[in-house]
Amino acid sequence: METPSDRVPLAERVEQLLAEEGPLPIVAAGHPVLRRPTVPYDGQLDDALLTRFVQALRLTMRTAPGVGLAAPQVGVGLRIAVIEDPAPVPEEVRIARGREPQPFRVLVNPAYEAVGTERAAFFEGCLSVPGYQAVVARHAAVRLTGQDEHGRKLDEEFTGWPARIVQHETDHLDGTLYLDRAELRSLSCNAAAARYWGQPTAEEAAGALGFDLP
């Protein structure tokens, strides 16, 4: 189904979004833009507009707060995402999940492929699916390719939690939500997740809720 914003050129759509000060509105699950493959970025925004858009994505991600944000999550069907993770977690969580701080970076036209066959399963959430978390088994290591906002080539391997972030945000650009890959028996509201499943790993949740881990 076409929405009114589909008929607005991308640059004009971005200009409309940036007309208001502050964080951008985050689109929630159910909006068609989250279920469509994005258009590869090939200069639809001039340099100044791209810079402003990236800055707005960063502000929106940090305000939410989150560790990544894809353009469709603010209603723009371009293959652009941002990631950043200060990783403010206890040491046992950092070790169990391989969660290391990640600097702010822009991913333009990203794609990933698995490195090896190992998979890791942890609770995961999404700014476009507020209020819930679920266990997702993802590749433990991936190779990311694409460009940055300046057109420089990206070709980098990510492991642990950074690999999870890369997969989550790139999936958004393909019209895939984390729930599509989740173990639905693990689906928990945030309050239940905090009360029952705050452990570094998902083993207790798997045993109690009846699902398998890889």
From TrEMBL:
It catalyses: N-terminal N-formyl-L-methionyl-[peptide] + H2O = N-terminal L-methionyl-[peptide] + formate. It holds the Pfam family Pep_deformylase. The keyword Signal does not apply. Binds 1 Fe(2+) ion. Its cofactor is Fe(2+). Keywords: Hydrolase, Iron, Metal-binding, Protein biosynthesis. Its EC number is 3.5.1.88. Belongs to the polypeptide deformylase family. Removes the formyl group from the N-terminal Met of newly synthesized proteins. Requires at least a dipeptide for an efficient rate of reaction. N-terminal L-methionine is a prerequisite for activity but the enzyme has broad specificity at other positions. This is Peptide deformylase. It comes from Streptomyces cellulosae. The gene is def.
